[in-house]
Each structure stands twice: as structure tokens, then as C-alpha cells.
Amino acid sequence: MGLKERDKTDTNATQESRDAMPNETESQVAKESPNPAKRSPDMRRRALIAGLATTPVLLSLTNRSALGQNVDCSLLSSIILGGSVNDLPPGFDHKNPDFIENYYQTHCVEGGENGTGNATGNSGRSGNSNN
Amino acid sequence: MKSWEDGVVVYHLDSGNTHLLNPIAGQVLKLLADAPADATTVARRLAGQIDLDSDLELDYNVASLLIHLDSLGLIEPVTA
Amino acid sequence: MKVSQIEAGDLRRSLSKSGLRIRTGPFVCHVQSPFQNIADGVQLFYKDFTCESEGFADFHLKLVRPANLHRVWRPQVTCSLNDESPFSPLPSDQAFAVFESLLNWSIYTTTYNYLIIHGATVERNGFAAILPAPPGSGKSTLCAALVSRGWRLLTDELTLVSPASGLISALARPISLKNNSIDVLQDYAPEEVFGPKIYNTIKGTIAHMGPPSESVARMHEAAVPGWLIFPKYQAGASTSVASLPKGQAFMRLSSGLVNYPVLGAQGFEALTQLIDRTDCFNFTYSNLDEAIAWFGALQPPWRDAVER
Fold first, then answer.
1. Which residues pair with C128 in a beta bridge?
2. Which residue in A46, C173, C199 sits closest to B61, CA to CA?
3. Where are the domains of chain C?
4. What is the mean pLDDT of residues B48-73?
5. Are residues A76 and A93 in the same domain?
6. Residue of C28, C281, C303, C288 lying closest to C147 (CA atoms)
7. Would you give per-residue pLDDT tens digits along chain C (308 residues)?
8. Are C179 and C141 contacting, i.e. CB atoms less than 8 angstroms apart?
9. Nearest chain C Cα to B21, which residue?
10. Domain boundaries, chain B
11. Does the beta-carbon distance from C113 to A1 stay under 8 Å?
12. What residue numbers bound the domain in which A21 lies?
């Protein structure tokens, strides 16, 4: 639709270790004895070890968006007041001043323009302490 | 963290990443969320949930899993 | 006042000058445009919507002629959202399609108090069926067919889930059909209201199907999520359904969400609640009658809980 270049949120889903799904062994065990509670101790142990040995992550959604970064609100306010965007953490690549201000208003100001009232969201969740 | 029959979804606050873990890895994560523990203790608790005794092989596999979860940033060592 | 209560000439003049403020679901959209095809589209598809000539608006949309040669030669439409131009100019005969896209873009990029799923949602007997799908999956075709057979239209493109309540808000805007699906729907549901075909867009040929008056009248009724159904149109395929485990459904849905990264942990919680409340399926179809029948036979996800 003739879209101009614009920073967009970007997420990337990756799929890991489908070949090593623990369900293969577990389903084999299930065929032998459908009720897990009635499986022999050896079968239960085999299933447990198979589950532990398999790569734990089945699917991942990697957040590459700057909007997913828990950016310190005081850092944002200092940028709005004239600080350098280079102080933003890696990955927060929205250098558009209007965007930064909108983001600050939405996430750092109580009763922000989108009405989220999400004043504590960032500082509460991020653990981005300046201590 | 949320459990379903095919696994556990977990949201990592610092990175904003979301993972679907296999049910057993998810169970380990929940055990650690309840209380920090070493690999031997986790292995014993896991085994106990299905009326088994723990052993060195289970300890070893749990320890490997914990290393993997640590590399993802989902757990971290705690000092005594 | 409803759009239908404004005489056609007055409508065009209002749009050209101070603009019109149209309420769609939780939003008020202020649109200004001199184009006749936009006035025609608003009159046809938004006739049941309420509008005002002044007051607060969430979005300010302008669709105007560019201040260059393309004002008259190979006429174009240029658009802006809150005085920023997200799109390049396009042929002016596509102006109504541009308006619809611009309004979608407005909601996508400025709304942070809803989880936004790219997909259609329809409702019947109190439960909503969410159809998340990328372009080309046939979701709009399926959505239009369901609506023509009595399902309430909440949305064709943007499903808004409240993180606080878990309910889905309705927009009840026109359904956008593309290419072959236009003729398919016109044959399948000739009694519905269709707009003119718009040719040579980036998506091919587009036409819109109007929202039923009842869907617009019930626009302010939020819906309880009941089913999450990932549709896929496959020519010649028999109707097939597979239950989708909830963990996989979560990951599949989250990877397609527009503003999941923005909402962070709140979005994660909202999504887990949504998946918890719904039965999840992969759905492949080629025959609309069979598809409609399958949807008609869906049981509420809470049926077992209620019957205990």
C-alpha cells in the first residue's frame, strides 16, 4: 500500500528442537499404558528422564522490538529534555523524538494519553535500577 | 507462567521474550519459583511427584536442564 | 445522529470542510476528504453509524489531493493520520480503500489499551469465534459468509481484546474482500450490500461488503471469547478440523499479535486468559456451506462446566 519506511514493532518467532519433542517417548509410553498413574515405575522414570534430556524450549518468540524494552522512565524524560538518544539501551532503536515522547506519555505518566494509567508498569517490571 | 497440557508458556520480563517449554521443564521452573533449590533437591521433588526415588542419573539430567534454563535467563543462581 | 440522516450533498460538503466524526466501537474517527468516492463509501457502509460534526476524536484522518501535478493529472490521493503521512500517494480511485486502510493503521499504531489480534471475529449466542489469520488465508471470505448467515460481525480485520475484562470489542466496519472472493461472496450472499470493485490496488482488486445493521446496532456489546479458529482456505480441500493444544495456540497467536511487545507482561496475562477461555482449532476449508455448518455446530467452551 505504498508504505513509507517507518519504525515498526518487530518480533521474531523461532522454533526449536521439534525433532526432539519429548512427546515421542511419552506417546510411546502412553501406548503401552494409557493411564500415567498405572505405568510401571520404570516407565515413569524413563518418561521423566526423556523429558529432562530434551531441549526444554519448544517454541520461542523473541522480542526484537524497542517497545518491548523496559526502558527507564527517567532516561526517557532526560532524552525528551535534550539528552542523547545514544543513551538508549541497545535495541531501542526508535530515534524519532515524537515516538519517544508518545512512549513516555503512554508508559511513564499516570493517566497517559491512551488512558492506560500505566505509570508504574515500566519501573515496576523492568528491574532497570540505576543503583 | 501458565501451564497447559502441551507445555508451559513463560514471559521473560527483562527481555520481553516468550517461551513455550516442554511440560517437565515447565514443572522444574515452577518448583524453583516456589522455592530456590539445587539440582539434587529439584530432582528429588520431581521424582517424588510421580512416586519415584531420585538417583544420580536424575540429578545429572536436572543439572543439565538447569544450565539450559540459566542460559535462557529464566533462572539464576542465588547466593546462600 | 446517524450518517443515514444526512443528505448526500450535505454529507459530501461536511466531509470536504470540517469533516465528520464517526464512532466505530470504542473510537471516534474524524475524517476529512473532498473525494466523492469516500463520501459514497461512507454513505453506503457507515449509514447506520452515529456521527457528529464536532467534539473529541481519537484519530484525525485527512485524505486529500496532493499539491502537485497529480492534483489533476493521473489524480492521486494523499493521506495523513494526525498530520503525519504513513502512506505514499495512491491513485484517487482507490481513495475509499485507502481510508479503510488508514483507519486500520490508526488503530494498529496508536492503541495500547487493547490486545490487537490481526483477524476477524464473529459472534453467536453470546460467544465469539476469533479467526486470526495472515493475508491470503481466506479469513475475510469466511467472515463475510458467516455474517451473511446470521453471525454478528464484530470485526473483519482488528480484534480488540480488553486486558482487564478479557472481552472483545466490536468495530462492525465494512468487510474487505479481495480478488476471487468478491465474486464468490456476491454469488453466495447476493442480498448483502457490496460496494464497487476497486482495481489495481497493491492487494489486487478490492470490494467491500457492508456490515449488517444489527451488527452496527450492537456495536457497543462486547463479546465473550469462545473459540480460537485458525482458518486456511485450500482450493478443493475437504473441510478438516484439528484441535490445537493450548500452548501451541498461544505461541501461534502471540507471534501474530500487533502490539504484544508493547503490552509486555499485561499482554502475556491477557493472552493466557484468552487461550484458557477458548477452544482452539486449525480449520481447513474450501466449501463455504460445509464451513458454515461446522461453525453452526460449535459447542460453547464452557458447556461442560455449566452442565456439572
1. C123, C225
2. A46
3. 3-110, 115-299
4. 90
5. yes
6. C288
7. 999 999 999 999 999 999 999 999 999 999 999 999 999 999 999 999 999 888 899 999 999 998 877 777 788 898 888 888 877 888 999 999 999 999 998 998 888 889 999 899 999 999 999 999 876 788 999 999 999 999 999 999 999 999 999 999 999 999 999 999 999 999 999 999 999 999 988 888 999 999 999 999 999 999 999 999 999 999 899 999 999 999 999 999 988 787 887 788 889 999 999 999 999 999 999 999 999 999 999 998 865 444 43
8. no
9. C247
10. 23-80
11. no
12. 11-63
Tens of pLDDT, residue by residue over A36-95, are 556 788 888 998 998 898 888 888 887 755 444 556 677 777 776 666 666 665 545 454
| A19 and A59 co-located in one domain | yes
The whole-angstrom separation of Cα B63 and Cα B58 is 8
Number of compact structural domains in chain A: 2
Q: Is residue A53 part of a domain?
A: yes
Same domain, yes or no, for A56 and A107? no
Average pLDDT value for chain A:
56
Do A58 and A72 belong together in one domain? no
Instruction: Give chain C positions within 8 Å (CB) of A14.
Output: none
User: Residues in chain C whose beta carbon is closer than 8 A to a beta carbon of chain A?
Assistant: 85-90, 98, 101, 110-113, 201-203, 247-248, 251, 254-255, 258-262, 264-266
Of A68, A46, A60, the C-alpha closest to B71 is A60
Among A128, A86, A122, residue whose Cα is nearest residue A106: A122
Which of these three, A22, A39, A63, is where a domain ends?
A63
> What is the reported pLDDT for C233?
92
Residue with cell 492506560: A116
Interface test with A, best of B24, B46, B56, B69 (most A CBs within 10 A): B24
Tell me, what amino acid is at B30?
K
Pick from C202, C196, C178, C155: which is nearest to C41 by CA? Answer: C196
Residue C130 — φ and ψ, nearest 5°? -95, 130
Q: What does pTM read for this prediction?
A: 0.78
Whole-angstrom CA distances from C203 to C56, C85, C101, C272 are: 33, 20, 12, 33
Q: Residue for cell digits 470536504?
A: C16
| Integer Cα distance of C81 and C204 in angstroms | 24
Q: Looking at the domain assignment, is residue A20 inside a domain?
A: yes
Residues A58, A24, single domain; the answer is yes
The set of chains that have 3 or more CB pairs under 8 A with B is A, C
Q: Grid coordinates representing C242?
A: 484439528
∠ at Cα C153 (C150, C159), nearest 5°? Answer: 145
In a domain, A4, yes or no: no
Are the CB atoms for C152 and C158 separated by under 8 Å?
Answer: no
Q: Is residue A72 part of a domain?
A: yes
User: Chain C interface, mutation test: which of B1, B3, B8, B11, most C Cβ atoms within 10 Å?
Assistant: B11
